[in-house]
Specification:
The complex is a heterodimer of chains A (188) and B (297). In chain A, 38% of the residues lie in helices and 0% in strands. Chain A has 188 residues and is mostly helical. Chain A has one domain. Chain A starts with 19 loop residues before the first helix and ends in a 12-residue tail after the last helix. By secondary structure, chain B is an alpha+beta fold. Chain B has two domains: 3-128, no CATH class; 184-294, no CATH class. Chain B contains nine helices and nine strands. The longest helix of chain B has 19 residues, at 185-203. Chain B is globular. The chains are: A mainly alpha (188), B alpha+beta (297). The interface between A and B is medium-sized, with 31 and 19 residues.
């Protein structure tokens, strides 16, 4: 096994008091790339940063456990999506799920690995945003605060691609009982 | 400072600390900073479209109600009250940013003041549908009134900007700091719900028996006002919230007459566009509103 993508001693360490400003300084110090930001437009950076600090405040996961120098925001985001499953995957007791994440992995590998684990419970899981939503919905406290889709925050993001999940609860109902009067807003 | 003055000073500090928690002092401080920023000469209202939310629909609404966006926003912020505010500290990525959410609406009001952009103060002001699920716990803290001793109870008339209106409410409240009063939060929310119900009764052509709003979270920012768009907004809120078929019928009849008027406006297309944008966000709460709107547009 190579180097783990997570610093497991930090992932549930929330001792230090942190502000959004501290988190922003940390992100900048680490030179995280691919977050859309210009000298006058800080909206994406502010939203990206807000998600990470909210994870910290809600004791979901400490971003310091997975942010590395010069990393791409897309990789960061996928690691974050795994990291916030710390309690759901019982990381405190046995962090096998987290240990398996390799530091060399890109977005594809992280998603594939997460899907392979989730598939043992949800047979058609392929880590689409709406599927991950359900993991978050049942596995994470204060799930309403967790933003999952982030396409618009990335500098190389596709602005045409919707940055939302549609209505996963209604979509699930439709999957169970399809009716002509409703069509899921996102890819099934 | 003689012994008695010194004693009084210490006493006042004790009273003030007892009457206000640290977080309340912080919130008052933020509210005062926003008020000060709105009073400065170099304020720019951010009218660029945000990537992740439709933040401009409120401005279109304001313009169609015959207000200048800049004047409307600045007037609102100059009178901003802390009682309904909660800081969104997660957006404060720089010390020069102040971000608060006003919780007492169906869709929270988001206010961000950014003083980092060269020498301008940039103000964002829009409805925040993402955070609409958050609570509506009020602190009851108000700025203004006439001079009163700290700790003293008195009747005060306080200006409260709410939606498209500024209410001047007479309240019995306690002075908790110079220029800061606290009243029972429930009195404030009841007052505002009552105002909305009065406006709704007018819009329903003084219908005598109808289900009333009972919570501020049922009523949008755009539903407090006097223009036809405000009337349509409150009727759509009402039709979306009501489950009783009679109430929905009352609202639909009232909306029919409003849309008949609207269709005769030369800039009807603008109104139509503004309404469609207003209710276009794909959030569950909007679905009923969109169905109602679909009957007329």
């Amino acid at each position: 096994m190579g180097e783990c993508a997570f610093n497991l001693s930090l992932i549930a360490d929330f001792e230090k008091s942190m502000t959004a400003e501290d988190m922003a300084d940390f992100l900048r110090e680490k030179h995280v790339t691919n977050i859309y930001e210009t000298s006058t437009d800080h909206e994406c950076f502010a939203n990206f940063n807000a998600e990470l600090i909210k994870d910290y405040w809600a004791c979901r996961a400490n971003p310091a456990s997975y942010i590395r120098d010069g990393m791409n925001a897309r990789v960061l985001w996928e690691l974050r999506k795994s990291a916030i499953l710390w309690h759901f995957m019982d990381g405190e007791k046995d962090p096998w799920f987290f240990e398996a994440h390799q530091a060399t992995w890109g977005v594809k590998e992280i998603k594939e690995y997460r899907a392979s684990v989730m598939r043992t419970k949800f047979i058609d899981y392929v880590d689409r945003d709406w599927q991950y939503f359900w993991v978050v919905r049942f596995g994470i406290k204060d799930w309403q605060d967790v933003r999952i889709a982030a396409e618009l925050l990335f500098a190389d993001g596709d602005t045409e691609k919707p940055d939302e999940l549609g209505d996963p609860i209604r979509d699930l109902a439709w999957r169970l009982v399809p009716v002509d009067s409703y069509k899921p807003k996102i890819e099934v | 400072m003689n012994k008695i003055e010194c004693f009084n000073a210490v006493d006042d500090t004790i009273i003030e600390e007892e009457l206000l928690s640290e977080s309340e002092k912080h919130l008052i401080n933020l509210c005062c900073k926003i008020r000060r920023a709105a009073n400065s000469n170099n304020v720019v209202i951010d009218k660029t479209e945000h990537r992740d939310s439709d933040n401009l629909h409120l401005f279109r609404f304001i313009e169609l109600c015959n207000y200048s966006v800049d004047e409307f926003v600045l007037r609102y912020l100059r009178n901003l009250q802390p009682f309904s505010l909660r800081e969104d500290a997660s957006q404060k990525y720089d010390k020069k940013i102040i971000c608060v959410i006003s919780l007492g609406f169906k869709y929270c009001l988001y206010v961000k003041v950014d003083t980092t952009q060269f020498c301008e103060i940039v103000v964002s002001f829009h409805e925040d549908q993402f955070y609409s699920h958050r609570g509506n716990e009020f602190s009851g803290l108000l700025l203004g009134g006439v001079k009163s001793e700290v700790g003293e109870f008195s009747s005060q008339t306080i200006a409260i900007p709410w939606g498209f209106k500024i209410f001047h409410i007479g309240l019995f409240c306690q002075c908790v700091k110079e220029g800061v009063f606290r009243c029972e939060p429930k009195i404030l929310s009841n007052y505002l719900v009552n105002e909305a119900n009065n406006f709704l009764a007018d819009c329903l052509n003084n219908q005598q028996v109808f289900t009333k709003f009972n919570n501020l979270k049922q009523i949008s920012f755009t539903s407090y006002g006097e223009s036809i768009l405000n009337e349509i907004s409150i009727l759509i809120d009402y039709a979306s919230y009501c489950r009783n078929p009679n109430d929905v019928t009352f609202a639909t009849i009232a909306l029919t007459s409003r849309f008949e008027i609207l269709q005769n406006f030369p800039d009807y297309e603008e109104y139509k566009k503004a309404l469609l944008e207003r209710y276009s966000k794909k959030i569950p709460d909007n679905e009923r509103a969109l169905i109602v709107l679909g009957l007329f547009i």
